[in-house]
Amino acid sequence: MNIQRVGILANAGKETAARDSLKLGEWLEKRGISVVYEEEIARVVKGVRGVSHEELPRLSDMIVVFGGDGTLLKAARIVKGHDVPILGVNLGAFGFMTVVNLHEIFDTMELILGGYSRTSKRMMLDASIDGKSLSALNDVVINRGNLSRIVNLETFVDDRYLATFKADGLIISTPTGSTAYSLSTGGPIVFPELDSMIITPICPHTLTNRPVVVPPDCVVKVVLTTREKGATVTVDGQDSLVMTSGDAVSISKSDAGVRLFTSPERDYMEVLRGKLGWGGSP
């Protein structure tokens, strides 16, 4: 992988984001690498070249993200459709996808620039309702919104009836998202390189309702049959669409995925142990 241009995107709300972004940018430029900054962090850093979300992937061979998983999820939707890998640098407290710690960034970049790096291909989802479409790297969540009652979600897989979930909501996640909201509601951990969709009910009224893993080429359709108005479709906890009674949302594997650099210091099992606080020795 020949890296000559690096884009930098950061959570401008993080206290050290501007300083860390500029420090990396200067380090790269000393090595002859062209650097561009996403426009929001460029306004904070000042004196650097800021570009729009549309321009960032076109002007970059890779993108470095400073922040937590939320910032990386934003970056994934920006680069969708472009074969531009993302390196996540963790400035948050958790971070499953931002696998490189801040003190490791320069050593990691040396490896990447030297061609000693590995990326992991991650599938994304498209959620469509009434001609509107949103993309997700982690999950599509259908929840009751402001309703104080449970919602009825009639669910189909490839037009075959699965179940009507009477619940607070329903999560359709990717393997990458299996360690996010889905995990907190009892969903399984699925290795991120496996393509599949995980259907997980949120606080179901029927205790026998369990998570279901379906193949990636399926189309999951969810129909809101609750008469009271108000349900929300949210992708990656950031963008949303509104559902009313009778509306259907279709979720399918996106034609485009995203590539994430993996940590040179730790494998996925070590990430799981560290993030979830599992014991070391059996």
Brief write-up:
This protein is of the alpha+beta class.
Number of domains: 2
Decide which structural class fits the backbone: alpha+beta
What would CATH call the homologous superfamily of the largest domain? Probable inorganic polyphosphate/atp-NAD kinase, domain 1
Distance between the termini: 38 Å
Number of strands: 20
Output the keywords.
282 residues, alpha+beta, Rossmann fold, Tumour Suppressor Smad4, six-stranded parallel beta sheet, six-stranded antiparallel beta sheet, 20% helix
Question: If you had to describe this structure to a student in words, what would you say it looks like?
Answer:
The chain is α+β, with helices and mostly antiparallel strands and 282 residues long. The chain has two domains: 138 residues, Rossmann fold (3-Layer(aba) Sandwich), CATH 3.40.50; 129 residues, Tumour Suppressor Smad4. 20% of the residues lie in helices and 35% in strands. The protein is built from seven helices and 20 strands. The strands form four sheets. It has a six-stranded parallel beta sheet, with helices on both faces. A six-stranded antiparallel beta sheet has the order 9-8-19-16-11-12. Helix 1 packs across helix 2. The longest helix is centred in the first third of the chain and has 13 residues. The chain starts with a strand and ends in a 6-residue tail after the last helix. The model has no long low-confidence stretch (mean pLDDT 92).
